[in-house]
């Protein structure tokens, strides 16, 4: 079932189109936006092999001149060196301010393409064509772009809204199971921080770990309601000066874990699941929410096939040190997003280090 969600922003509004089978019509949709005819398509080898030529054919059929750049897959490649490669191709193909960069891939490709488009000629057009569940419901929406520093995730970045987000749910049929589970972590996050109806629908599903376990009607609901939740929050706080911070639920500890494992041991969603579990346990310790609600959250994480045990290789003291490099640190204090109820969270910088240490220590012994 097709749906269109409009992101209403003061300076730059755009549509999120959720249309099954729409990938081959990208050129048509872009032609309607009246963009310049030079396009740079950014993807990774796996995605480009599956869908690259289909997208190029669609663009060329509408008169676009298409160049492409293939970047390695993986969070460890989301760095300034990859951005330089995009710049080199942009220069070689004489991209202008009317030109467009298209991200065909998951969150990594989307973040890098967005950052490159934000900084090339001080900002050119940008289209998101997310190919992973996580990118469809989260990373492709809202205009956050960036790359990692060796000591921290997404420390280098810019806000740069796309001109269009095109979601073709049929692409999920070729998504590896592990990446599907990673996306479910972000969907569960929306249920905790914002949308009780979404949470309730997820609770009714017996298994959330694979696409084929989920009925098509529920998958349609998940995509639409997750995207709408992100849009609702971003529309109220585009530049993350307040409310939008809640989208980082599970990401404070999650980002630290990703960084310390070199972005190679865990997917972003797996690290977020660990972070959500930890945030729930910290909230219990601080008397902010109940064990019953924590168990409901953790049951969804388990249904999605996600683990909540810390990697054995990690030193807990190093995790706590890494929290100081988080983007949400303000005046030297680490800000946590902690749950208070299903559908509600609170931002606080009053989390004792002892509580963090105790929770992380307990997570070493989990199955």
From TrEMBL:
Binds 1 divalent metal cation per subunit. Can use either Co(2+) or Zn(2+). GO terms for cellular component: cytoplasm. Keywords: Amino-acid biosynthesis, Aromatic amino acid biosynthesis, Cobalt, Cytoplasm, Lyase, Metal-binding, NAD, Nucleotide-binding, Zinc. Its EC number is 4.2.3.4. The keyword Metal-binding applies. The keyword Ubl conjugation does not apply. InterPro entries: Dehydroquinate_synthase, DHQ_synth_AroB, DHQ_synth_fam, DHQS/DOIS_N, DHQS_C. It is found in: Cytoplasm. CDD domains: DHQS. GO terms for molecular function: 3-dehydroquinate synthase activity; metal ion binding; nucleotide binding. Belongs to the sugar phosphate cyclases superfamily. Dehydroquinate synthase family. Catalyzes the conversion of 3-deoxy-D-arabino-heptulosonate 7-phosphate (DAHP) to dehydroquinate (DHQ). This is 3-dehydroquinate synthase. It comes from Richelia intracellularis HH01.
């Amino acid at each position: 079932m097709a749906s269109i969600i409009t992101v209403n922003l003061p300076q730059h509004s755009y549509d999120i189109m959720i249309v099954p089978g729409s990938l081959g019509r990208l050129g048509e949709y872009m032609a309607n936006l009246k963009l310049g005819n030079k396009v740079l398509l950014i993807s990774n080898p796996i995605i480009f092999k599956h869908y690259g030529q289909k997208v190029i054919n669609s663009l060329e059929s509408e008169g676009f001149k298409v160049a492409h750049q293939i970047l390695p897959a993986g969070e460890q490649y989301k760095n300034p060196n990859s951005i330089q490669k995009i710049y080199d191709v942009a220069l070689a193909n004489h991209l202008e301010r009317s030109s467009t960069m298209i991200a065909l891939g998951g969150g990594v490709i989307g973040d890098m393409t967005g950052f490159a488009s934000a900084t090339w000629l001080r900002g050119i057009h940008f289209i998101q064509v997310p190919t992973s569940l996580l990118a469809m419901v989260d990373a492709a929406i809202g205009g956050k772009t960036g790359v990692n520093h060796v000591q921290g995730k997404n420390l280098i970045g810019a806000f740069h809204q796309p001109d269009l987000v095109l979601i073709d749910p049929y692409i999920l049929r070729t998504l590896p199971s592990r990446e599907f589970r990673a996306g479910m972590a972000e969907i569960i996050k929306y249920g905790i921080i914002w949308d009780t109806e979404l949470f309730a629908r997820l609770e009714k599903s017996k298994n959330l770990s694979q696409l084929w376990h989920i009925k098509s009607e529920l998958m349609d609901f998940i995509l639409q309601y997750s995207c709408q939740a992100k849009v609702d929050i971003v529309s109220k706080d585009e530049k993350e000066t307040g409310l939008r911070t809640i989208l980082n639920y599970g990401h404070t500890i999650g980002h630290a874990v990703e960084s310390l494992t070199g972005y190679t041991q865990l997917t972003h969603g797996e690290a977020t699941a660990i972070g959500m579990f930890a945030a729930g346990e910290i909230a219990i310790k601080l008397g902010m929410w109940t064990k019953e609600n924590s168990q409901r959250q953790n049951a969804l994480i388990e249904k999605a096939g996600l683990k909540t045990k810390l990697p054995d290789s990690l030193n807990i003291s190093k995790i706590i040190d890494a929290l100081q490099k988080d983007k949400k640190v303000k005046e030297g204090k680490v800000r946590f997003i902690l749950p208070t109820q299903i559908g509600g969270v609170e931002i606080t910088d009053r989390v004792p280090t002892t509580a963090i240490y105790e929770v992380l220590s307990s997570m070493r012994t989990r199955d």
